[in-house]
Prior knowledge:
Layout: H1 3-21, H2 45-49
Amino acid sequence: MSxxxxxxxxxxxxxxxAQASKPKAATGKPTMPAKAPVAPAAxxxxxxxxxxxxxxxxxxxxxxxxxxxxxxNHRYS
Length: 77
């Protein structure tokens, strides 16, 4: 048995074990937790009053360019 065959067999054994221990739904359909309705995010008043773009980056910083800027990128601070 080659190294790759051994790795494949180990992966398949782990998968089979995980499938055996998974609880099965009564209807046969996967169960999904109910999601609460998400309200749309309200615009911040700081971005609306000062005339800035207000685009938010993934880490929470806001764009400091003017609202409706033509540049394709944002300047965050």
